[in-house]
Write a structure and sequence with these properties.
The chain is of the alpha/beta class. It has helices at about 1-30, 45-60, 75-80, 100-105, 150-155, 155-160, 180-190, 205-215, and strands at about 35-40, 65-70, 85-90, 115-120, 135-145, 165, 195-200. Bound molecules: magnesium ion and zinc ion.
Length: about 220
């Protein structure tokens, strides 16, 4: 039984990768750069997207966001409240987005009207790693409030992403976390080949650096 399940899982992942490649091509054909944000519940993904999008829009870029959640449209409403156009993408039960769900959202968007699309994954540091969606960049957002052992506990998500962001730097002292421990674990895990950016979405410290790091 266990072997059968492994086989099914393999097919699911293979099919997901096929659709992710097709999403990537669709987005490229429309000249869109896409950034996926993964991270725990409460790490600050939605707030960071809002801040990054504000800066991109001030540079004249047309930005759209897909807000992934199990249920509800809270994030979409927060995004729209900031002036960022957005759509909800609800998984219903699943704890991660998959390429097919993202495809259905893309089909609802007038793609030639946008330059940048953000995809906010469901709050989860485990299975999103296995389900690429077709984005140019996969970013992981963690926060100092999650403790200093996040990199040591979640190798896969950091290895399956292009860049990592450490949010809530402004309260690191208050929660007794040394950001350098997290950064050092990340350097060891990635062999120093990928960057982790510290920021505080609340004070906006470090947000401009992330915009530049993403190539905007
Ligand atoms: Mg959110
Ligand atoms: Zn999942």
């Amino acid at each position: 039984m266990h072997i059968v399940q492994v086989g099914m899982e393999y097919d699911v992942l293979k099919e997901n990768n096929r659709i992710a490649n097709s999403n990537y091509r669709l987005l490229k054909e429309n000249g869109i750069r896409t950034i996926e944000l993964m991270g725990s519940i409460g790490s600050g993904k939605t707030s960071l997207i809002i801040k990054l999008a504000e800066r991109m829009r001030s540079k004249g870029l047309r930005v759209y966001a897909i807000a992934g959640d199990v249920t509800g449209d809270d994030d979409q409403r927060r995004m729209r409240g900031s002036g960022l156009e957005a759509i909800s993408c609800n998984t219903g039960h699943e704890c991660h987005l998959d390429a097919n769900l993202v495809r259905k959202s893309l089909e609802k968007i007038d793609l030639d009207k946008y330059d940048v699309v953000f995809i906010e994954n469901v709050g989860n540091l485990v299975c999103p790693a296995d389900f690429p969606l077709g984005a140019d960049y996969r970013a992981v957002v963690i926060s100092t409030t999650e403790g200093d052992d996040m990199v040591r506990k979640h190798h896969d998500i950091f290895l399956h992403s292009d860049v990592a962001i450490l949010n809530k730097m402004d309260i690191a002292d208050a929660v007794g976390v040394d950001p350098e421990v997290i950064m050092s674990d990340y350097r060891k895990l990635t062999g120093g080949l990928k960057a982790m950016y510290g920021c505080s979405v609340k004070t906006e410290e470090g947000v401009d650096e992330i915009v530049s790091a993403l190539g905007f």
